[in-house]
Amino acid sequence: MMAIFSVTTVCFVAFLVRGCTGTGLPSLTFSKTDIQLAVDSTKQLTLTPQSHIIEDATILFMYESGKDTSYKEKHNLIVPVPNVIIHGNTTKGVKVNITAVTAGHLTLRVNSSSPEIENLEKCFVRITLVHDKALVIINAVIGWIYFVAWSISFYPQVISNWKRKSVVGLNFDFLAYNLTGFLAYGFFNVGMFWVDGVKKEYADAHPRGINPVQLNDVIFTIHAVFVTIITIFQCTVYERGGQKISKAYMNFKRKSTEGWSIGNVILDFTGGSFSLLQMFLLAYNSDDWGSIFGDPTKFGLGFFSILFDILFIIQHYVLYRGRTPYYTIIPDTTEYIEKPVNTPVATG
Ligand SMILES: *[C@@H]1O[C@H](CO)[C@@H](O)[C@H](O)[C@H]1NC(C)=O
Ligand SMILES: *[C@@H]1O[C@H](CO)[C@@H](O)[C@H](O)[C@H]1NC(C)=O
Ligand SMILES: *[C@@H]1O[C@H](CO)[C@@H](O)[C@H](O)[C@H]1NC(C)=O
Protein backbone atom coordinates (compact mmCIF):
# COMPACT_ATOMS: atom_id res chain seq x y z
CA MET A 1 0.00 0.00 0.00
CA MET A 2 2.70 2.48 1.05
CA ALA A 3 4.90 1.33 -1.82
CA ILE A 4 2.19 1.98 -4.37
CA PHE A 5 1.58 5.37 -2.84
CA SER A 6 5.29 6.29 -3.02
CA VAL A 7 5.62 5.15 -6.61
CA THR A 8 2.57 7.23 -7.55
CA THR A 9 4.00 10.27 -5.78
CA VAL A 10 7.39 9.91 -7.49
CA CYS A 11 5.71 9.63 -10.87
CA PHE A 12 3.54 12.63 -10.18
CA VAL A 13 6.51 14.76 -9.06
CA ALA A 14 8.51 13.64 -12.09
CA PHE A 15 5.57 14.63 -14.28
CA LEU A 16 5.38 18.06 -12.63
CA VAL A 17 9.12 18.71 -12.94
CA ARG A 18 9.04 17.68 -16.60
CA GLY A 19 6.05 19.94 -17.15
CA CYS A 20 7.79 22.88 -15.49
CA THR A 21 11.19 22.63 -17.12
CA GLY A 22 9.54 21.77 -20.43
CA THR A 23 11.24 20.05 -23.34
CA GLY A 24 11.58 23.14 -25.49
CA LEU A 25 9.26 25.05 -27.74
CA PRO A 26 8.92 24.16 -31.39
CA SER A 27 10.94 26.56 -33.48
CA LEU A 28 8.26 26.55 -36.18
CA THR A 29 4.47 26.69 -35.82
CA PHE A 30 1.56 26.31 -38.19
CA SER A 31 -1.18 28.95 -38.01
CA LYS A 32 -3.63 26.12 -37.18
CA THR A 33 -3.13 22.66 -35.65
CA ASP A 34 -6.45 21.23 -36.86
CA ILE A 35 -8.10 21.92 -40.18
CA GLN A 36 -11.06 20.51 -41.99
CA LEU A 37 -11.17 20.63 -45.72
CA ALA A 38 -13.72 19.64 -48.36
CA VAL A 39 -12.49 17.58 -51.30
CA ASP A 40 -11.12 19.78 -54.16
CA SER A 41 -10.81 22.83 -51.94
CA THR A 42 -7.63 24.58 -50.79
CA LYS A 43 -6.72 26.14 -47.51
CA GLN A 44 -3.74 28.38 -46.94
CA LEU A 45 -1.74 28.03 -43.74
CA THR A 46 1.22 30.00 -42.51
CA LEU A 47 4.37 28.39 -41.18
CA THR A 48 6.09 30.85 -38.86
CA PRO A 49 9.50 30.66 -37.14
CA GLN A 50 9.32 31.45 -33.43
CA SER A 51 12.69 33.16 -33.37
CA HIS A 52 15.27 34.41 -35.84
CA ILE A 53 17.50 31.84 -37.44
CA ILE A 54 20.77 32.92 -38.98
CA GLU A 55 20.90 30.84 -42.14
CA ASP A 56 18.08 30.18 -44.59
CA ALA A 57 16.57 26.73 -43.97
CA THR A 58 14.72 24.41 -46.32
CA ILE A 59 11.63 22.82 -44.85
CA LEU A 60 10.43 19.44 -46.11
CA PHE A 61 6.94 18.14 -45.49
CA MET A 62 6.13 14.68 -44.16
CA TYR A 63 2.79 12.89 -44.26
CA GLU A 64 1.78 10.90 -41.24
CA SER A 65 -0.96 8.31 -41.52
CA GLY A 66 -1.32 6.01 -38.54
CA LYS A 67 2.15 4.75 -37.57
CA ASP A 68 3.59 5.57 -40.97
CA THR A 69 5.38 8.87 -41.59
CA SER A 70 6.87 9.46 -44.99
CA TYR A 71 8.12 12.22 -47.28
CA LYS A 72 5.79 10.74 -49.94
CA GLU A 73 2.04 11.29 -49.83
CA LYS A 74 1.23 7.62 -50.42
CA HIS A 75 -2.53 7.76 -49.91
CA ASN A 76 -3.16 10.61 -52.33
CA LEU A 77 -5.29 12.46 -49.78
CA ILE A 78 -3.84 15.90 -50.47
CA VAL A 79 -1.75 17.44 -53.25
CA PRO A 80 1.91 17.00 -52.18
CA VAL A 81 3.20 20.19 -50.57
CA PRO A 82 6.40 21.59 -52.15
CA ASN A 83 9.37 22.44 -49.91
CA VAL A 84 9.48 25.97 -48.51
CA ILE A 85 12.34 28.18 -47.37
CA ILE A 86 12.39 29.89 -44.00
CA HIS A 87 14.62 32.93 -44.40
CA GLY A 88 17.28 33.95 -41.92
CA ASN A 89 17.08 37.08 -39.77
CA THR A 90 13.32 37.39 -40.02
CA THR A 91 10.30 35.92 -38.25
CA LYS A 92 8.11 36.39 -41.29
CA GLY A 93 6.03 33.28 -41.99
CA VAL A 94 5.74 31.41 -45.27
CA LYS A 95 2.45 30.41 -46.87
CA VAL A 96 1.61 26.76 -47.41
CA ASN A 97 -1.32 25.64 -49.55
CA ILE A 98 -3.17 22.44 -48.63
CA THR A 99 -5.41 21.04 -51.38
CA ALA A 100 -7.71 18.12 -50.64
CA VAL A 101 -7.90 15.24 -53.12
CA THR A 102 -10.02 12.59 -51.36
CA ALA A 103 -11.80 12.12 -48.04
CA GLY A 104 -9.82 10.78 -45.08
CA HIS A 105 -7.36 12.25 -42.64
CA LEU A 106 -3.66 12.68 -42.09
CA THR A 107 -1.16 14.75 -40.15
CA LEU A 108 1.23 17.04 -41.98
CA ARG A 109 4.66 17.25 -40.34
CA VAL A 110 7.86 19.09 -41.19
CA ASN A 111 11.54 18.34 -41.17
CA SER A 112 14.68 20.26 -41.93
CA SER A 113 18.39 19.57 -42.11
CA SER A 114 19.07 22.94 -40.49
CA PRO A 115 20.59 22.50 -37.01
CA GLU A 116 19.03 25.83 -35.99
CA ILE A 117 15.53 24.46 -36.16
CA GLU A 118 14.59 22.30 -33.17
CA ASN A 119 11.67 20.36 -31.79
CA LEU A 120 10.12 19.87 -35.17
CA GLU A 121 8.10 16.90 -33.87
CA LYS A 122 5.93 19.51 -32.15
CA CYS A 123 5.14 21.29 -35.38
CA PHE A 124 2.24 19.63 -37.18
CA VAL A 125 -1.25 20.15 -38.51
CA ARG A 126 -4.00 17.54 -38.35
CA ILE A 127 -6.00 17.52 -41.54
CA THR A 128 -9.50 16.08 -41.87
CA LEU A 129 -10.75 15.77 -45.41
CA VAL A 130 -14.48 15.44 -46.03
CA HIS A 131 -16.74 15.08 -49.04
CA ASP A 132 -19.01 17.88 -47.92
CA LYS A 133 -18.55 20.50 -45.24
CA ALA A 134 -22.30 21.11 -44.97
CA LEU A 135 -22.63 17.45 -43.92
CA VAL A 136 -20.31 18.14 -40.98
CA ILE A 137 -22.85 20.68 -39.67
CA ILE A 138 -25.83 18.47 -40.53
CA ASN A 139 -24.16 15.64 -38.62
CA ALA A 140 -23.65 17.80 -35.57
CA VAL A 141 -27.34 18.81 -35.69
CA ILE A 142 -28.42 15.17 -36.08
CA GLY A 143 -26.18 14.31 -33.14
CA TRP A 144 -27.90 16.80 -30.86
CA ILE A 145 -31.35 15.71 -32.09
CA TYR A 146 -30.75 12.14 -30.98
CA PHE A 147 -29.10 13.38 -27.82
CA VAL A 148 -32.28 15.32 -26.95
CA ALA A 149 -34.66 12.51 -28.03
CA TRP A 150 -32.83 9.83 -26.05
CA SER A 151 -32.24 12.04 -23.04
CA ILE A 152 -35.88 13.16 -22.79
CA SER A 153 -37.00 9.53 -23.10
CA PHE A 154 -35.41 8.79 -19.70
CA TYR A 155 -37.56 11.27 -17.84
CA PRO A 156 -41.15 10.01 -18.02
CA GLN A 157 -40.05 7.03 -15.89
CA VAL A 158 -38.27 9.21 -13.34
CA ILE A 159 -41.22 11.62 -13.15
CA SER A 160 -43.78 8.82 -12.91
CA ASN A 161 -41.80 7.16 -10.10
CA TRP A 162 -41.67 10.47 -8.31
CA LYS A 163 -45.40 11.20 -8.78
CA ARG A 164 -46.47 7.71 -7.69
CA LYS A 165 -43.79 7.59 -4.99
CA SER A 166 -43.44 4.04 -6.24
CA VAL A 167 -41.20 2.06 -8.56
CA VAL A 168 -43.69 -0.81 -9.04
CA GLY A 169 -43.63 -1.98 -12.66
CA LEU A 170 -40.00 -0.98 -13.06
CA ASN A 171 -37.54 -3.67 -14.05
CA PHE A 172 -34.57 -3.71 -11.67
CA ASP A 173 -32.38 -5.98 -13.80
CA PHE A 174 -32.89 -3.53 -16.61
CA LEU A 175 -31.63 -0.70 -14.38
CA ALA A 176 -28.54 -2.66 -13.42
CA TYR A 177 -27.81 -3.47 -17.07
CA ASN A 178 -28.38 0.17 -17.95
CA LEU A 179 -25.93 1.40 -15.34
CA THR A 180 -23.21 -1.10 -16.30
CA GLY A 181 -23.81 -0.46 -19.99
CA PHE A 182 -23.82 3.32 -19.77
CA LEU A 183 -20.76 3.32 -17.50
CA ALA A 184 -18.78 1.15 -19.92
CA TYR A 185 -19.98 3.14 -22.93
CA GLY A 186 -19.24 6.36 -21.02
CA PHE A 187 -15.62 5.34 -20.34
CA PHE A 188 -15.25 4.44 -24.01
CA ASN A 189 -16.68 7.79 -25.17
CA VAL A 190 -14.77 9.94 -22.70
CA GLY A 191 -11.55 8.11 -23.61
CA MET A 192 -12.11 8.38 -27.33
CA PHE A 193 -13.06 12.04 -27.12
CA TRP A 194 -10.89 13.53 -24.38
CA VAL A 195 -7.92 11.22 -23.71
CA ASP A 196 -5.06 11.77 -26.17
CA GLY A 197 -3.51 8.36 -25.50
CA VAL A 198 -6.74 6.56 -26.37
CA LYS A 199 -7.33 8.74 -29.42
CA LYS A 200 -3.81 8.04 -30.64
CA GLU A 201 -4.22 4.30 -30.16
CA TYR A 202 -7.46 4.35 -32.15
CA ALA A 203 -5.87 6.47 -34.89
CA ASP A 204 -2.90 4.06 -35.09
CA ALA A 205 -5.26 1.11 -35.44
CA HIS A 206 -7.38 2.94 -38.04
CA PRO A 207 -4.87 5.07 -39.98
CA ARG A 208 -7.37 6.40 -42.47
CA GLY A 209 -10.29 6.33 -40.04
CA ILE A 210 -12.08 9.18 -38.33
CA ASN A 211 -13.03 9.26 -34.67
CA PRO A 212 -16.63 7.97 -34.56
CA VAL A 213 -17.30 9.54 -31.15
CA GLN A 214 -18.94 12.96 -31.21
CA LEU A 215 -19.34 15.45 -28.37
CA ASN A 216 -23.07 14.70 -28.15
CA ASP A 217 -22.23 11.01 -27.48
CA VAL A 218 -20.00 11.96 -24.56
CA ILE A 219 -22.58 14.27 -23.01
CA PHE A 220 -25.32 11.69 -23.66
CA THR A 221 -23.58 8.94 -21.70
CA ILE A 222 -22.60 11.20 -18.80
CA HIS A 223 -26.23 12.34 -18.56
CA ALA A 224 -27.51 8.74 -18.94
CA VAL A 225 -25.36 7.53 -16.04
CA PHE A 226 -26.63 10.44 -13.97
CA VAL A 227 -30.32 9.68 -14.72
CA THR A 228 -29.84 5.95 -14.08
CA ILE A 229 -28.31 6.72 -10.70
CA ILE A 230 -31.31 8.94 -9.87
CA THR A 231 -33.67 6.10 -10.85
CA ILE A 232 -31.71 3.61 -8.74
CA PHE A 233 -31.89 6.06 -5.86
CA GLN A 234 -35.68 6.21 -6.37
CA CYS A 235 -35.77 2.41 -6.14
CA THR A 236 -34.14 2.57 -2.73
CA VAL A 237 -36.62 5.09 -1.32
CA TYR A 238 -39.94 4.35 -3.06
CA GLU A 239 -42.34 1.44 -2.80
CA ARG A 240 -41.15 -1.59 -4.77
CA GLY A 241 -42.82 -4.40 -6.68
CA GLY A 242 -40.96 -7.64 -7.23
CA GLN A 243 -41.20 -8.57 -10.90
CA LYS A 244 -37.96 -9.47 -12.58
CA ILE A 245 -38.72 -9.96 -16.24
CA SER A 246 -38.13 -7.97 -19.33
CA LYS A 247 -40.64 -5.40 -20.50
CA ALA A 248 -41.27 -7.11 -23.84
CA TYR A 249 -41.77 -10.46 -22.10
CA MET A 250 -44.00 -8.73 -19.55
CA ASN A 251 -46.16 -7.37 -22.37
CA PHE A 252 -46.29 -10.83 -23.89
CA LYS A 253 -47.32 -12.45 -20.59
CA ARG A 254 -49.90 -9.81 -19.85
CA LYS A 255 -51.00 -9.69 -23.51
CA SER A 256 -51.17 -5.94 -23.15
CA THR A 257 -48.95 -2.93 -23.51
CA GLU A 258 -51.21 -0.84 -21.30
CA GLY A 259 -49.50 1.64 -19.03
CA TRP A 260 -46.67 2.06 -21.44
CA SER A 261 -46.11 5.30 -23.26
CA ILE A 262 -45.99 5.43 -27.04
CA GLY A 263 -44.38 8.88 -26.71
CA ASN A 264 -41.41 7.26 -25.07
CA VAL A 265 -41.02 4.73 -27.84
CA ILE A 266 -41.27 7.42 -30.50
CA LEU A 267 -38.50 9.38 -28.75
CA ASP A 268 -36.40 6.26 -28.47
CA PHE A 269 -37.01 5.38 -32.11
CA THR A 270 -36.04 8.92 -33.16
CA GLY A 271 -32.86 8.64 -31.08
CA GLY A 272 -31.93 5.27 -32.56
CA SER A 273 -32.58 6.14 -36.18
CA PHE A 274 -30.83 9.53 -36.01
CA SER A 275 -27.85 7.94 -34.31
CA LEU A 276 -27.54 5.36 -37.09
CA LEU A 277 -28.11 8.02 -39.74
CA GLN A 278 -25.27 10.06 -38.25
CA MET A 279 -22.93 7.05 -38.29
CA PHE A 280 -23.63 6.43 -41.97
CA LEU A 281 -23.25 10.10 -42.91
CA LEU A 282 -19.99 10.35 -40.95
CA ALA A 283 -18.70 7.21 -42.64
CA TYR A 284 -19.68 8.52 -46.06
CA ASN A 285 -18.25 11.98 -45.45
CA SER A 286 -14.83 10.63 -44.49
CA ASP A 287 -14.86 7.54 -46.70
CA ASP A 288 -14.44 5.52 -43.55
CA TRP A 289 -17.03 2.74 -43.43
CA GLY A 290 -14.91 1.01 -40.80
CA SER A 291 -15.86 3.72 -38.30
CA ILE A 292 -19.30 2.10 -38.01
CA PHE A 293 -17.65 -0.98 -36.54
CA GLY A 294 -15.02 1.10 -34.72
CA ASP A 295 -17.83 2.05 -32.34
CA PRO A 296 -19.94 -1.12 -32.06
CA THR A 297 -21.74 0.18 -28.96
CA LYS A 298 -23.09 3.23 -30.76
CA PHE A 299 -24.14 1.05 -33.68
CA GLY A 300 -25.68 -1.54 -31.34
CA LEU A 301 -27.53 1.08 -29.28
CA GLY A 302 -29.10 2.55 -32.40
CA PHE A 303 -29.81 -0.79 -34.04
CA PHE A 304 -31.34 -2.51 -31.01
CA SER A 305 -33.32 0.59 -30.00
CA ILE A 306 -35.00 0.52 -33.39
CA LEU A 307 -35.50 -3.25 -33.28
CA PHE A 308 -37.13 -3.25 -29.84
CA ASP A 309 -39.18 -0.15 -30.59
CA ILE A 310 -40.60 -1.89 -33.65
CA LEU A 311 -41.36 -4.93 -31.49
CA PHE A 312 -43.17 -2.70 -28.99
CA ILE A 313 -45.07 -0.90 -31.72
CA ILE A 314 -46.22 -4.23 -33.20
CA GLN A 315 -47.30 -5.39 -29.73
CA HIS A 316 -49.10 -2.13 -29.06
CA TYR A 317 -50.89 -1.56 -32.37
CA VAL A 318 -51.28 -5.05 -33.75
CA LEU A 319 -51.08 -7.85 -31.23
CA TYR A 320 -52.50 -6.46 -28.01
CA ARG A 321 -54.41 -3.47 -29.36
CA GLY A 322 -56.76 -1.95 -26.78
CA ARG A 323 -56.44 -4.90 -24.41
CA THR A 324 -56.42 -4.61 -20.68
CA PRO A 325 -53.96 -6.99 -19.08
CA TYR A 326 -54.76 -10.63 -18.31
CA TYR A 327 -52.48 -10.34 -15.36
CA THR A 328 -51.71 -7.50 -13.08
CA ILE A 329 -48.73 -6.72 -10.97
CA ILE A 330 -49.43 -6.65 -7.27
CA PRO A 331 -47.44 -4.14 -5.27
CA ASP A 332 -45.82 -5.16 -1.99
CA THR A 333 -44.88 -8.63 -3.14
CA THR A 334 -41.48 -10.01 -3.84
CA GLU A 335 -42.65 -12.22 -6.71
CA TYR A 336 -44.26 -11.46 -10.03
CA ILE A 337 -47.77 -12.69 -9.38
CA GLU A 338 -49.84 -13.86 -12.28
CA LYS A 339 -53.21 -12.83 -11.00
CA PRO A 340 -55.96 -12.83 -13.62
CA VAL A 341 -57.73 -9.51 -14.04
CA ASN A 342 -61.53 -9.93 -13.83
CA THR A 343 -62.48 -10.20 -17.49
CA PRO A 344 -59.95 -9.67 -20.24
CA VAL A 345 -61.27 -7.78 -23.24
CA ALA A 346 -60.40 -9.94 -26.21
CA THR A 347 -61.42 -7.66 -29.03
CA GLY A 348 -58.95 -5.37 -30.75
C1 LIG B 1 21.76 37.13 -40.77
O1 LIG B 1 22.58 38.00 -40.05
C2 LIG B 1 23.87 37.46 -39.76
C3 LIG B 1 24.63 38.45 -38.88
O2 LIG B 1 24.10 39.71 -39.00
C4 LIG B 1 24.61 37.18 -41.07
O3 LIG B 1 25.86 36.62 -40.80
C5 LIG B 1 23.77 36.21 -41.88
O4 LIG B 1 24.39 35.98 -43.14
C6 LIG B 1 22.38 36.75 -42.11
N1 LIG B 1 21.59 35.74 -42.77
C7 LIG B 1 20.92 35.90 -43.88
C8 LIG B 1 20.18 34.74 -44.44
O5 LIG B 1 20.92 36.97 -44.46
C1 LIG C 1 -1.59 29.24 -52.80
O1 LIG C 1 -2.83 29.45 -53.42
C2 LIG C 1 -3.07 30.80 -53.78
C3 LIG C 1 -4.47 30.87 -54.36
O2 LIG C 1 -5.36 30.17 -53.60
C4 LIG C 1 -2.03 31.26 -54.79
O3 LIG C 1 -2.25 32.62 -55.12
C5 LIG C 1 -0.66 31.08 -54.19
O4 LIG C 1 0.34 31.40 -55.14
C6 LIG C 1 -0.45 29.66 -53.71
N1 LIG C 1 0.77 29.57 -52.97
C7 LIG C 1 1.62 28.55 -53.07
C8 LIG C 1 2.84 28.64 -52.22
O5 LIG C 1 1.42 27.62 -53.84
C1 LIG D 1 14.74 14.92 -40.31
O1 LIG D 1 15.88 15.23 -41.05
C2 LIG D 1 17.12 14.86 -40.41
C3 LIG D 1 18.28 15.40 -41.22
O2 LIG D 1 18.04 15.32 -42.60
C4 LIG D 1 17.15 13.34 -40.28
O3 LIG D 1 18.32 12.92 -39.61
C5 LIG D 1 15.93 12.90 -39.45
O4 LIG D 1 15.87 11.51 -39.37
C6 LIG D 1 14.64 13.42 -40.07
N1 LIG D 1 13.57 13.17 -39.17
C7 LIG D 1 12.51 12.41 -39.50
C8 LIG D 1 11.46 12.25 -38.46
O5 LIG D 1 12.41 11.91 -40.61
UniProtKB/TrEMBL annotation:
Transmembrane segment boundaries: 134-155, 167-188, 218-238, 259-281, 301-320
The UniProt record lists the keyword Zinc: no
GO molecular function list: L-cystine transmembrane transporter activity
Keywords per UniProt: Membrane, Repeat, Signal, Transmembrane, Transmembrane helix, Transport
Primary location group: membrane
Signal sequence extent: 1-22
Family matches, as InterPro entries: LC_transporter (IPR005282), PQ-loop_rpt (IPR006603)
Membrane disposition: Multi-pass membrane protein
One GO CC term, this protein: vacuolar membrane
Subcellular location, record wording: Endomembrane system
Catalytic activity from the UniProt record: L-cystine(out) + H(+)(out) = L-cystine(in) + H(+)(in)
Homology family: Belongs to the cystinosin family.
PANTHER family, per database record: CYSTINOSIN
Name of protein: Cystinosin
UniProt organism field: Mytilus galloprovincialis (Mediterranean mussel)
